[in-house]
Structure formats: structure tokens, C-alpha cells
Write a structure and sequence with these properties.
The chain has one helix at about 1-50. It is an all-alpha fold.
Amino acid sequence: MILNQRDAMLRRVESPERRLGRRIGLGIRLALNYARCVLIIAACLKYLAG
């Protein structure tokens, strides 16, 4: 029980930083996916335009 309580305390202390890290990671991933989609659409439009 003592170890579990200690782990819970550590998790509470760490959680804000971890959440920020996850948000930044997700933001970067979304930005890369968005950029890739935009590039693909631009390439398709160029191809269609001839």
C-alpha cells in the first residue's frame, strides 16, 4: 500500500509535464500530417492543371 501511495504521489507530480510533452508530440504529429496532406493536394492540383 505504501509503495502504491508513493507511486500515485510521483505520478501527480509528473503528470503536468508529461501532459505538456504529449500535447507537444501530438501537435508536431498533427502538423506533419497536415503538411503532408497539403503537399499531396498541391501535387494533385499541379498534376491536374498539367
